[in-house]
């Protein structure tokens, strides 16, 4: 019975070996014009480079939140269940491949436990540098804070309107 179980386990491992679902990768090269990157999966001992991974953003038809990834950053890469070529190139026939390396999409960064970030504003929406010195914070009670160690520039082609019950300038 043990030989049969070993056989089944080996077959299962062979089948799953080619199934790509998600991987932590290191960015090796970035193309900011095309918004894609070449990445190396950290799980691959042969360091097989995955080319032309689209950078995923939090976005919809009207808004975009983009992270400026850099070479060396660790990112989470997912592999689409089906071929993504027809989506990224506006049409065409869908290939039959599934979970292919060609269908990798970068969806976010990875924070190592060995390099923790500040524990400030853990229940707020925050856009900040990792030192928490320059930040935009929306608190859960609705308050909004903008704090910077550098200049804050406001540029507008139209009016800049500041309204409030009391306005304090220092």
What would you note in describing this structure?
The chain is built from two helices and ten strands. Helix content is 12%, strand content 29%. The chain is elongated. The longest helix has 16 residues, at 2-17. It has a five-stranded antiparallel beta sheet with strand order 3-2-1-6-7, with no helix packed on it. It has a three-stranded antiparallel beta sheet with strand order 8-9-10, with no helix packed on it. The protein has 170 residues and is α+β, with helices and mostly antiparallel strands. It starts with a helix and ends in a 23-residue tail after the last strand.
| Spatial strand sequence of the major β-sheet | 3-2-1-6-7
Number of helices: 2
- Number of E-state strands: 10
Give the % helix. Answer: 10-25%
Please state roughly what percent of the residues sit in beta strands, choosing from under 5%, 5-15%, 15-25%, 25-35%, 35-45% or over 45%: 25-35%
Rg value: 23 Å
Unreliable residue stretches: none
Main sheet overview:
5 strands, antiparallel
Q: Kindly, what is the distance between the CA atoms of the first and last residues, rounded to a whole number of angstroms?
A: 81 Å
Give the topology string: H per helix, E per strand: HEEEEEEHEEEE
Overall pLDDT confidence: 83
Q: Structural class given helices, strands, pairing?
A: alpha+beta
Shape: elongated
Oligomeric category: single chain
């Amino acid at each position: 019975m043990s030989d049969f179980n070993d056989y089944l386990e080996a077959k299962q491992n062979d089948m799953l070996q080619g199934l790509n679902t998600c991987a932590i990768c290191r960015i090796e090269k970035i193309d900011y014009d095309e918004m894609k990157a070449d990445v190396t999966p950290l799980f691959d001992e042969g360091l097989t480079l995955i080319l032309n991974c689209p950078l995923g953003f939090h976005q919809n038809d009207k808004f975009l939140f983009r992270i400026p990834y850099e070479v060396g950053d660790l990112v989470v890469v997912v592999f689409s269940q089906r071929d993504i070529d027809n989506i990224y190139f506006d049409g065409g026939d869908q290939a039959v491949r599934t979970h292919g390396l060609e269908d990798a999409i970068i969806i976010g960064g990875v924070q190592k436990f060995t390099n923790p970030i500040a524990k400030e504003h853990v229940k707020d929406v925050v856009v900040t540098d990792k030192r928490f010195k320059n930040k935009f914070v929306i608190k859960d009670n609705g308050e909004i804070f903008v704090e910077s160690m550098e200049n804050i520039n406001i540029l507008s082609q139209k009016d800049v309107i500041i309204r409030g019950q009391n306005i304090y300038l220092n």
